[in-house]
Amino acid sequence: MPANVSGRKCPNCGSPLRYDPESGRLICEYCDSSFTIEEVDAADREQAQQVGSMNFTPGNEALQNLKAYVCESCGAEVVADPQTVSLVCPYCGSNIVLSDKIGGELTPDGIIPFSITPKTLPAAVRAFYKGKKLLPRSFFSDSSIGIVQGIYVPFWLYDSKPQGELVFNGSRDRTYRDGDYTVTEHQNYELHRSVSMSFHDIPTDASERMEDALMDSLEPFDFSALKAFNTDYLAGYVADRWDKNAKEMKARTDRRVYNSAVTIAMARATGGWSDVTPNLKSHLDMSDSTARFVLLPVYVFDIKWNGQSYSFAVNGQTGKVVGTLPEDKALKRKYFWKWWAIGAAAVMAVSSLMLL
Amino acid sequence: MKKKLWLLLLLALMLLMPAGRAQAENLLISPAPGAISDKPDWYPADPAGFSFYSDPDALRVVDRADIFSEEEEAIIRQAIREQSARGNADIVVVTDASSYGMSHMQYADDFYDYNGYGFGESRDGILLFICMESGNRGWWTSVTGCLDPAVSTGPVLYTESVANTFDDALYDYLVAGRYAEGVQNWVGNVGTWLTYGVPYAPLWYPTVEEQAVWIRQQKLTEAPRIVDTAGLFSGDEAEALERKARLLLTHYGTDVVIHTAKSDYGMGREAYAQAFYQYGGYGLGTDYSGVLLVMYTDGSYDLYTEGTVPSCLSESGSVTRLLEQTADAAADKGRKDGCETYLNLLEKAFKKNKIPHSTGTWIMSAVIAAIAGLIPGGISRSSASASMKTVRSAFDSNDYLVEGSFRVDGGHDEFMGVTTTRVYNPPPQQKTGSSGGGGGSSYSSGHISSSGSSHSGSGRKF
Q1: CB A265 within 8 A of CB A193
Q2: Does B409 touch chain A (CB under 8 A)?
Q3: What is d(CA B259, CA B277) in angstroms, rounded to the nearest whole number?
Q4: Per residue in B108-139, pLDDT tens?
Q5: B315 found inside a domain
Q6: Does some domain include residue B261?
Q7: What ipTM does the predicted assembly reach?
Q8: Count of A-B CB contacts under 8 Å
Q9: Residue B330 belongs to what domain range?
Q10: pLDDT per position as a tens digit, A72-112
Q11: CA A209, CA B181: separation in Å to the nearest integer?
C-alpha cells in the first residue's frame, strides 16, 4: 500500500516550493514566483483533474522502523523514521510531506508558522553571546555553527482547572507587657483555603527526542498566532509527530500547575499572616484538564568548539535563543578576583576615609 | 494644774531611767494629744492648721524601729551635731517599724515638716528615714530649703548624681544589716557634701566658702606636670615623663598635665578632671590652654582640655583613639609606656591636628575589606556563571493563569499552638536615676509635701 506523500510544486514551472516565514507565502526560487497556500491548492486541484494523482509511493519497507519514500520530483528513494511527517529530499531539495502520518489523532489542532528565517540566526546567536562574561575568547573565533534544522516540534497545550483545598502554615504575633517583661506570643495556625483557578495553553513538548528542559526554556510562545493546521506550513522544514501522549505528559504539566496554584494562593489568600509556608496536607484536584496537539516552530543546531558540541535551540516565533555555553575556568577565577578586588578596595577606601 | 505637774514629774522619771528613754524621746517629738489613729503618734491632728516652727532641741536621731544600740545612737548624734554645725544645715535620722500606709517619701517629708526641724527661715536640712516594715524595707532621704535643687541655686544641692552616690554607699551597709555603720558613714558623707558641695572630696578641693571667693590663678610653669597622687610611677619614670611633658608645654605653648588618681571622689570623671585642672592652677595664656590626662588606678583614663588646643582633641572619635591607644600601650608595656605613647600622640595632635589610628586598626580594616570583598566576588561569579546556562526546566505555569479565574471558595484557620517569649524590659521611668543595688534609686525633685512645703529626695528598697 503506497504511503501518501505530498510535495508542493510551482504552478508555473513545476519546481519545489518553499514556505517563506517572512511573507507567509510559498516561494518558487527557480522562477521567482510566490503564491498563497490557497492559490497553490487551486492550481493543484486543477492539475489533478488533468493528470491524476501525483502521490509518492513508498519504496523498500524492509528496514525496521523506517519507511522509504520515492521523491516525486527526482525519483530518489528517501528514508524517514516513524516520527517524521515532513522532510526535505536530500537529492533535489524538494519539500516532502508524509501525508500518511498525519490523520486522526495525529492531525495537529494548530500550528504556529516560523516567523524568523535561518539567515537571522547568526546575528541572534551573536546577541546571545553578549554579556556572557565567562565565555572563552576563542569561542568567538574558533566555534562554528553546525547545520541549522528548522523543526516543527509537537507540543501538547493543556487547559487545566485545578480546585481543592490548599493548606499553609502561618503565624501571628501578639505582644504585651507583663510587669517588667515584654511578652511575645507566637501563635501558629494551619490556614485552609478552598480555591479554584484556570490555566490556559500550558505547553509541554510531546517529542521524545527533544530535551524537556530545552523546550521549556523556549517559552513563551504567542499562542494567539496559532493557525489551523495546513501541510503547506511544513514545506522546507522537518516536522515530527507526537510520540509522548497527552496522558503521559499530564503529570509533568500537573506539577507546574500545582506549584503555581500554591504560589498564587499563598500570595492572594493568606494576607495578614506572617511566616506563611506551604503545608503537605494540601490536596488539589487536577482531573479537569484537556489537551490539544500543536506544532511549534523551533530551530535546533549545534555549535562545535574545542572538540565538543553544544546544543542550542531558537524559538522560531520570537527568536529567543537558549543553550548552555562553555565556561572558561581561568576567566571565572579572574572574574571572581576582579570583583573581590573592587569590593575590597571600596571597603578599604571607605575605611580609610573614616580612619584618616 | 496639778495634773500637768504630775505628768511633768512622770516624764522626768522616765528620762532618768535608761529603759524608758526611748519612749520618752518619742513622747518629746510627738504632739500626742489629738493624734489620729491611722497615723503615727507624731502626726498633727489638724495638718491643715499646722504652722511650721523651729525646735533646736528636738532629737536628731529618732530610732523608732530600735535598730541602734544606745552607744551607736550617741555616736551618731554626736556626728550629726558636728557635721550640721560644720555644714550649717540640719541633719536628722529617723527609723520606724512602719510607714503607717504612707510612702517612704511622704513619711520622711512629713516627719521633717511636723517636728520643727530645719535651720533658718527656709528650714535648710536633710533627713534620712529608714523604714524597717516587713516587706516594705527601704529608705528615703528628704532635703529641704537651700539643699533642694527645685527651690535653690546654692552651691550645695541634692542632685540626682549626689543622691546616687549617697544611696549607693548606704545600700551596701543596710542590706548587710550594718545599720549604725551605714548611718554614721552617711552622716560623714553629708558633712563632706555640706562643706565641699560634693559627697567626697580630695584634700586639694576647696570648701564651699573658699569656692565662693576663689580667683583662678595660674601655677608656675616650673611646678610639676606629672602629679602622681596614686603613686603609679617610680621617681625615674615620673622624671622622664616630666621632661617630655615640659618639652611639649614649652614648644607648643599649651599646658600638658598628667595626674594619677585612685577615684573621682564621686564627682564624676569630667567634673573631677575639671576641678583638678582649674583649682590646681593649670593652663597657659589668658584662656588657660592645656590638656590634662587623668589616669585612674582601675585602668581607666579621662582627658580634659581647656582653652586653645588642637580641634582634634575636642572630637570624641579622636579622643577615644588617643585614650584607647594609651590604655593599650599601658596594658601591654606598663603605665609609664602608656603615658609615653600618650605624649607622642599628643605631639602629633599638636603638629598635624590628627590622632593617627593604631597599626592594629589598619590591619583589622584590611582584613575586614578582604573578607567583605568575597561577597561581591562570589555574587558576581555566581551571577556570571548563571548567565551561561539558559536551559532550565519550567517550575510553574503562572504565565498561563486565566485572568480573573482565581477564586477562594472558602477556608478556615486552625489554631495549632503558641510559643511565648518573655524579655525582661522594665519601663523607662523605673530606670531613671537608678544606680547600684536595690533596683536603683527613685529620685524626686521639687515635690510638695502634705504641709505644702517643697522637698527633693531619693530612696531605695533593701
Answers
A1: yes
A2: yes
A3: 10
A4: 999 999 999 999 999 999 999 999 999 899 99
A5: yes
A6: yes
A7: 0.76
A8: 203
A9: 226-352
A10: 777 766 666 666 777 777 666 667 777 666 666 668 899 99
A11: 98
